[in-house]
Specification:
single chain, mainly alpha, 6 helices, about 0% strand, membrane, YqhA family protein, transmembrane helix, UPF0114, transmembrane
Length: about 160
């Protein structure tokens, strides 16, 4: 029975490949949106959004692409073996040294929080002058996620 379960771990390869492809596509779309924003600024391209909003949306896409990229690298490392040798592990930034699923979860959680902050700033720029109460949902979610992440980190270490 255990042998069958160990063979199923290679299904993670499919998840990793598609997640990696998704990250590349999101990064490409973010770069395309950034180039369009620069075209608005420097070459007077037509757009229904101000260039600042276009740039903020591209940053949001870059961050979501980064979440997918980190997720695919983390899953590869956790389920399919080491990505780098132990010597090269020391050359990686500390935040990218993923040793277990908890560390991957916290890293993804932090990246999602940054994405939510960028999304909120983007929404503020888009809704200039017509603020509504439902715009407060995003900062409330950021607060709840931040508090819960801090609590989980505190109790997981002990």
């Amino acid at each position: 029975m255990l042998n069958y379960l160990l063979k199923l771990r290679f299904l993670v390869v499919i998840i990793v490949l598609f997640t990696f492809l998704n990250s590349l596509i999101l990064i490409f779309l973010a770069a395309k949106r950034s180039v369009h924003a620069y075209g608005i600024v420097f070459f007077n391209f037509e757009s229904d959004k101000p260039p600042g909003v276009e740039i903020l949306e591209s940053i949001d896409l870059f961050l979501i692409g980064l979440v997918f990229l980190i997720f695919s690298l983390g899953l590869t490392k956790l389920f399919l073996g080491r990505l780098v040798d132990d010597e090269d592990q020391n050359n990686l930034p500390k935040w990218l040294r993923i040793g277990n699923f908890f560390e991957l979860k916290i890293l993804l959680w932090q990246t999602i929080l940054v994405s939510l902050v960028v999304l909120f700033v983007d929404q503020l720029f888009q809704h200039e002058g017509e603020m509504e109460w439902n715009l407060l949902i995003i900062p409330a979610a950021i607060l709840v996620l931040s508090i819960s992440m801090a609590v989980i980190q505190k109790y997981e270490k002990h």
